[in-house]
Design a protein that fits this description.
This protein is an alpha+beta fold. It contains twelve helices and 15 strands. The relative contact order is 0.10.
Length: 438
Amino acid sequence: MIPHDSLVEALSRFLPEQRWFGAKDQTVTEVLVEKTEVLFGEFPVLIRVEAEVVLQDNSADRYHVLIGLRQPGDPAIFLEGKAEAVLGEFATDLGPAYGYDALRDPELALKLFELIAPDLGQPERVRAVAAEQTNSSMIYDDKYILKVFRRLADPNIDIEVTGALWSIGFHHVAQPLASWNSGESDLAMLQPFLAGGTEGWALALTSLRDHYDTAGDPAEAGGDFAAEAERLGEVTAEMHLALASALGTSKGDVHSWVRLMHEQLDRMNHPEVDFERARKVFDLAAEVETSGPALRIHGDYHLGQVMRTDKGWYVLDFEGEPARTIEERRMPSSPLRDVAGMLRSFQYAAMAAMQVSQDQPIELAESWESRNRQAFLDGYVAIAHPGQILPADLPSLDLLVKAFELDKAIYELGYEMAHRPAWTAIPLAAIERILSQA
């Protein structure tokens, strides 16, 4: 349908410009088109492409691109102001055409739903989720959400874990309704849309605005978040117990966990990080004798990955940290990695809200963070008892949480240095606080 060389040239320009492209800090050296499939062969055409992208360090990732084709002169209002969504003009089997990201086209997005879930009826409306990152999500009639995977892994971790949790009765995840596959590649997953739900991050910011307005004890603010934080801790523990039941456990290898922490620290280069003290925190964690088991975890757990509905907390997106390899994201680890991720999220929320509420003393942010950290931990430990999926004693638990939280803050610092330099002060403050308590 599209000449091979023209497609390769267009993808070489198009892919690095997308928000879901995972290697923005590297140069693309080669694009290899592995597969093309024409899903709808008349204008507007829908084509599916799988391509391997080779980077300057000789690593490679596989990407999934849906391309729409329309005839020159055919208006596409949905592309206005979205130059990054256009691939360019092509000489196709049907004649001249211009290509673009097909998920921007409501007509093609509706046809895609019919292809993936023909038994669910044809929706009338579709809209894109604005906050897409590693994937692209479409909402149909405020009833269904379709997550189209952009970076391919076999099998897709989100489908694998969500399906396993639902199958054993952990229903704090949205039920998988349908999936789209090609051979061994998972391409998309359809789930119910949690209408009326509010992201944990948004709830936390609302609580913080109330707290900063009253400028007193966070327990007395109208939007006190502690009860929600405690329940979220309970749901997190229930999730980890379900993951252990559904996907099994293995003996915890604290030395392997600490080795990965050291390796990440060795990749870090920032003048304000005390590397010697950080290594001591990790080495103390390596002395823990009863670390608890290793199990499959969420891997990128924070307030933006949970949603509060009238039925309680739901957990979203089990694909793990996008900067880590698929192998690392699938590797069993301590559930305390997820705990540390959520604890870090409380500080991020407090500091992000402070940037909006000018001239607030840092003590206000710290008091809110401290209250909700403790509430979350209380809820978590009440369900995931020490000696079950946690270390057998509280001192060991504290050492491991501190090490995982420091490791997460170092990861965050690297991310902010690459993508949001103005935000580096947030993980730097956390690193200094953890080190000062060591």
